[in-house]
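Components:
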Amino acid sequence: MAKKLLFVCLGNICRSPAAENIMNHLIEQEGLGDRFICDSAGTGGWHVGALPDRRMRAAAKERGLDFVGSARQFEAMDLREFDLILAMDKDNYRNILALDPQRKFTDKVKMMCDYCETYTDKEVPDPYYGGADGFNYVIDLLFDACGGLLKSLKSH
Ligand code: 4NP
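Structure:
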């Protein structure tokens, strides 16, 4: 059965849709489309239904990638539904686990940057209030983290 991965940030318009789209790109490149299902969500609900942020789509486009998606809010059911939940920062991690008061799903929730191989960041920085550089940085960082994540998943 395909492994279900959920990428989570705050708004689900910048970091987590980027992670989802980059992960799908790497999965397709390796011809592993039947082994993984990727989705993303935000702990906040302000942008529900929105496309990925246009600045994030523009940064992706420069690398020949088209980021798709429609924002949705993370919900408690996701903890049951997904096999692995990747938090972009510590606030996201805390807010995800706040929906698991019995601590049944703690082991499924990881920090995205734990999978980085080159970058030493502990969190994926929120680019929302910054300039284009921030969006480019997030894409580079997520390519590193998604590559490491895919490697880790393939070896298990
Ligand atoms: P994201 O970025 O969590 O990476 O999607 C943000 C998007 C929206 C807001 C904050 C961060 N906001 O405050 O609306």
